[in-house]
Design brief:
Length: 500
């Protein structure tokens, strides 16, 4: 085994990897790390983009109580990862932990599968935020120019434009503008309070409390339980990219302490803002049909317009959401490139010798950024042929994300949370049965989303409402297998522990 893929005993809490120490520059401070982690999820903004669709499919019950379910289940995933990153702070995150925790015979294949699942999840997440940014821009144009009818190629061009612009920022100006993440953190939280207070103060009439808290609509054709579970995909978006701060470990200061705090702050602030935002916006809906059939194609815009009775106010709120979306896109590209770089550093990808390089002056993995953006560019081209196929690709992100969390959680259970992998002296510790509960629920939720997020939303199934997520997952699995047999099988090695 290559010596650069060996870790010291976890009690030392030090990664024995000379390439990391030589290439990574610890120039991201604790506050910036927490802000970047928040900006990637930006929970209330993520929920804003899908709120109306969830209400249409499940009434108000699904987004409100679904947010609580996701807080508990994904929160357990966050606790699991916070504990692990306090011991093993690496850019590889979940796939490195999988390599460390796995039995020798299956360490390489399991960590390889986890790594590809995580990379695909981040690429899907990048595409999702890029299309949300695109839709927000064109929604503002449509709102103020009602005669404008956007074509698919308009969305395509804006999608590629914002994606390329974020990539240019990440290559040339990111290291000199870390303050943008701090400013965005303040702006989006301030924006949340302004939107929340203004909408509740101005909306009239408001929806009755009984409808807000108990109205469950199920026109899907599925039993109520299945309809609720398939509808969790929207509240689940409040934690999309929860592992973001983990993949910046090798660039941030004191990651063993700071990154767990970033994860926990994202979980807690994300739930409070998302839950309050969801409840308040449902109270503020005046004309539900107008929200669903809004010509802008962005229902939250119509909700804000109805609530404030002001086109100017609604547009200002959209501008706040647009800033949050673009900063999130930049942060997601940054984080995804670090994960790809780490995977290439372990020689897991075709062309790893190029992708693993960090530019000596700019201090960023340029090839990692360009490779990821090339894949996102191709995904954007799919939008021209089929928006259904494009949406299916985006839908895989949450599934693969949760699966990447489940790999190390399941292996912790396999190891019975033994002290040789979870030393007693660590900066973040889940006491008593809490660790077991967090690990078990992480695995259970991964199985749940893998099954129910692949279900068609509505019965009977037709070509237009079919959920093609399973087909996309199959295509990703084929690509992963090809790369394994051509390259990874002979060259990839993840980190392992050695006893002192």
């Amino acid at each position: 085994m290559d010596s650069t893929n060996i870790m010291k005993s976890p009690a030392d809490n030090v990664l024995f990897r000379s390439s990391m120490e030589r290439e990574a520059v610890h120039d991201i401070g604790p506050l910036e790390t927490i802000c970047i982690g928040w900006n990637i999820c930006n929970s209330w903004a993520g929920v804003a983009g899908t709120l109306a669709l969830t209400i249409a499919l499940g009434g108000s019950v699904t987004p409100i109580y679904g947010a609580i379910v996701c807080f508990v289940m994904v929160g357990c995933s966050g606790l699991t990862m916070a504990e692990l990153v306090s011991i093993y702070p690496t850019a590889g995150g979940q796939y490195h932990w999988t390599s460390i925790l796995s039995p020798d015979k299956c360490s390489r294949i399991l960590s390889y599968a986890c790594g590809f699942a995580n990379i695909f999840a981040w690429i899907a997440g990048t595409s999702g935020v890029a299309i949300l940014t695109t839709q927000a821009i064109l929604a503002m144009v449509i709102f103020h120019q009602p005669d404008y009818v956007p074509e698919d190629w308009h969305y395509f061009l804006v999608f590629q434009g914002v994606n390329i612009l974020a990539c240019i920022h990440n290559i040339f100006t990111f290291k000199r503008t870390l303050w943008i993440n701090d400013a965005s953190f303040v702006l989006t939280l301030s924006g949340f309070f302004i939107i929340f207070v203004t909408c509740l103060a101005r909306a009239s009439p408001k929806q009755p409390s009984q409808l807000v808290w108990t109205n469950f609509i199920n026109d899907s054709g599925w039993p109520d339980g299945i309809s609720f579970l398939t509808g969790l995909i929207s509240p689940n978006y409040m934690y999309a990219g929860l592992d973001g701060a983990i993949h910046l470990c090798e660039e941030c200061q004191n990651p063993q302490s700071v990154v767990p705090k970033a994860i926990l702050s994202t979980i807690s602030i994300g739930f409070v803002t998302s839950f309050v935002f969801t409840v308040s916006m449902i109270y503020c809906i005046v004309d539900f049909d107008a929200v669903i059939n809004t010509p802008t194609g962005f229902p939250i815009y119509e909700i804000w317009h109805q609530a404030t009775r002001s086109g100017t106010a609604a547009t200002v709120f959209m501008a706040i959401l647009l800033v949050a979306a673009f900063v999130a896109l930049s942060a997601i590209q940054q984080t995804a490139s670090r994960l790809t770089w780490s995977f290439a550093r372990d020689n897991a990808l075709i062309g790893s010798k190029f992708v693993c390089r960090i530019h000596p002056e700019l201090g960023v993995p340029i090839w990692g950024l360009l490779v990821n953006n090339a894949v996102v560019f191709i995904i954007g081209c799919i939008y021209l042929g089929s928006s259904t196929a494009f949406n299916a690709f985006i839908g895989t992100g949450l599934i693969l994300q949760q699966l990447s969390y489940a790999f190390p959680a399941a292996l912790l259970l396999y190891r019975r949370r033994a002290v040789n992998v979870l030393p007693r002296k660590r900066l973040f510790k889940l006491y008593g049965p809490l660790g077991w509960i967090a690990n078990i629920l992480t695995v259970i939720f991964a199985i749940t989303v893998l099954v129910f997020y692949n279900f068609p939303v509505i019965l009977p199934v037709t070509g237009s409402n079919m959920n093609y997520t399973s087909a996309v997952l199959g295509t990703m699995a084929i690509f992963t297998a090809i790369n394994w047999f051509i390259h990874g099988k002979g060259l990839y090695h993840g980190p392992r522990l050695v006893e002192e």
